[in-house]
């Protein structure tokens, strides 16, 4: 609850965004004699200070009167920087309560967030779902603009969430809700139209690679000439993953909401798909800016991050992926503190085999020299390639298959395989066969011998050996085999053929 105030003051609950997290703030208002005006204190940025003018105009348009007194607005705690326009509504509500123009008790159970227009209309601000999560944790009810009616299933508010479209009607709605009057329920969105792997023709080997990657959470790189369907495959990768639910849904929705993006698809259970252009900056990919916000790797949390034309990305940008791929989170250290964003995503990348794109292409001759091909393929860098478990070639589909409209595995069948493999892996771990060092993966004697021979023949490093073993473990999980056999190692080695050739 808010801090105690005098009879000439009032306090209202609100919050501000810090990264993707909502931080609680109390708006305290005190009315005193002196020169009339509004003074805002408590480390407020320019956007917050400009609320004084918006509040004055909104009061006049809504029929409220600004007290002819010195109005002091304190944003507590004072040592936290306040940014954004979401404090407009709570500042206005606190002033009205202090001036006895609205009942104070009608505001105690709410967390108010919203931007005021000059005509008194209330507009939404980024972070609605993060604010709702904070309100549920504090036993409050979020009240704000109706712009994001789709709310995540967070907590169980004591009354339905009221949407405030205008200041005058909004203050009245809060008073009525406090008295027990009903307010409209929020509307949950329906699922959006989804793509399906059945549209991908004559690429069954690539689909198999997608199943293995999705079942084990392995990074995947597709290499092939232009027009072979690499982007088409990547855009369907999220359809073979299980639907979002529970904590995963909340985390993904909070990040999208904090970034000011539409989270309706995520709230309907769809996993996010992010495909940044190869000109993206480091801050755009992993997060940053002012104020600090999530990057593409965090927006892809619990979903798919697709990097098309992988060698065209700047080298320093690609290397920033190393920490998120290992730690499943991004940690940014700035002068005002440390920001942490979740980044547990399925990496899918695509690349041409050479600058002209036709190396190994049937019916098209490559015009690149050996040196050009080597330089082009080296742009990705060894450290990042070491963290990509599956590399598969994508050939052009046969024209006859496209003309006849042939279909292979669809998303539903592939998703069933992924879910069954994950369920078996969970059972396997409970039986003591884990996912740690190679020795704990359950390789039988023949599989260990095959992996040892492979490593010595191809001069593989320790990381490459471990990656092949873990992919083989996933292949065994798909077949629901407790032991990893030589056949599973052989299939896993096919996805690292550029190293073992």
Approximate strand percentage: 15-25%
Radius of gyration: 28 Å
Number of helices: 21
Helix content: 25-40%
The backbone outline, from C-alpha atoms, is: elongated
| Spatial gap, N to C terminus | 66 Å
Structure classification? alpha/beta
List how many beta strands DSSP finds.
Answer: 15
Mean pLDDT: 87
Q: Biggest sheet, open or closed, and with what strands and sense?
A: 5 strands, parallel
Please give the order of strands in the largest beta sheet.
10-11-14-9-15
Which stretches are poorly predicted, pLDDT < 50 over at least 5 residues?
Answer: 156-160, 181-191
Describe the structure.
Mean pLDDT is 87; it is low at 156-160 and 181-191. The relative contact order is 0.10. It is elongated, with a radius of gyration of 28 Å. The protein has 21 helices and 15 strands. It has a 5-stranded parallel β-sheet with strand order 10-11-14-9-15. Strands 1-2-4-3 form a 4-stranded mixed β-sheet. Strands 5-8 form a two-stranded parallel sheet. Helix 6 crosses helix 19 (462-478). With 501 residues, the chain is of the alpha/beta class. The chain starts with 8 loop residues before the first strand and ends with a helix.
